[in-house]
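ok so for the tutorial part 2 we go from a plain amino acid sequence to predicted structure tokens. step 1 is just haveing the sequence, like this:
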Amino acid sequence: MKMKNKNSIFYKIPPRIRELIFYINFFKNPKKKIIEIKETKKMYKNFRKDFGEYENSKELIYKTLKNILIKKSDGAELAKEFYTDNLEIKKKNKINEKEIILICLVKDDLRRIKEFYKYYTKIGITNFVFIDNNSTDGTFEFLKELKNTTIFRALDKYTTIRRQAWISKVMAYYGYNKWFLIVDSDEFLVYNNCENVKINKFIEKMEDRKEHRIKSLMIDMYADEKFLGKQENDEESIMQKYCFFDNDTYYCQKHNCFEAVVGGMRNRVFGKFGNIEPFLIKYPIIFYEKGDIQYNSHFSYPFYKNFNKEINTALLHYKFLPEDLEKIKERVKEKNYALGSKEYNAYLKAYQENENLNLKYNKSQKYNNSSDLEKIKLISKIDWSK
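step 2 — the prediction. this is what the tokens look like for a chain of 386 residues:
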């Protein structure tokens, strides 16, 4: 992939040292930061004690949140949402701590979640933890009937900061020194030969390489049809129907907190409707260690751990199902996603301009299996014989 922006001397500084520069934010308004620290400490002392493994790591989590507060402008908001007592355990299932724990935030996504559960079961996930954000379409009831699911319920309205706090809180509930897979209900993880190799073997391979934060490229998937518009009783497999992707529209981009990739179908199709350039890198698989926090949906804290990594996985991103038009309208109205739901504004404008818009173009490639991504070097090849 080509570099989207120019290199600078700043990015030649080692990431661990570069991260120290974030402390300069404290001196921009030290009085405000001191007040925020005091408020955070008060919330920390008043937070409930009966929350899984949290009690064993509460002091370190507080110190981590305080560090983020000092370094980043939204740190106080993240800490406030973390310490807000807004998660209820509605169903508890005993987990196997030796295997990876999947965490998924979901709201009113019954069609996707049915296929999501089948897919992740097929690649070897046995620990499912869902954060249900007040679903009313049967999603909650469906998950409740499954044997190997734990369900937390969040009744507060979604915001991007709140999302990170919910996920960080669930990770704290299970405690340090465990592997987590953090995905949305429209994200299906793939890695080289995942059709035949279970995820625990993949994790073993990463452990052998001493990789504890696994980099992933988000690949927007789409069908050869108009991308919005309600279709009744569509029971066709999402993965089979939405089987096309861009193979040549990705660019590397320097970023302070992680190694970014931008471009892809969303930039190609919707960029002109709002100058959007979505980040396409995530670190969905993480070995949760002391000092880690899910700071952003695209990268975790400490930031220096996000650099110099191969792209070993991809997230097939099934974001554009025909029935999603109402969700897009709601998110535009609520402005509760990143930058006031800027991307969703672009989607809606594109639809309003052309209701028959097809996301496929002459260079689109059909996805058959993980080898398609490995052959064009969107994910790394893994030698499973060693």
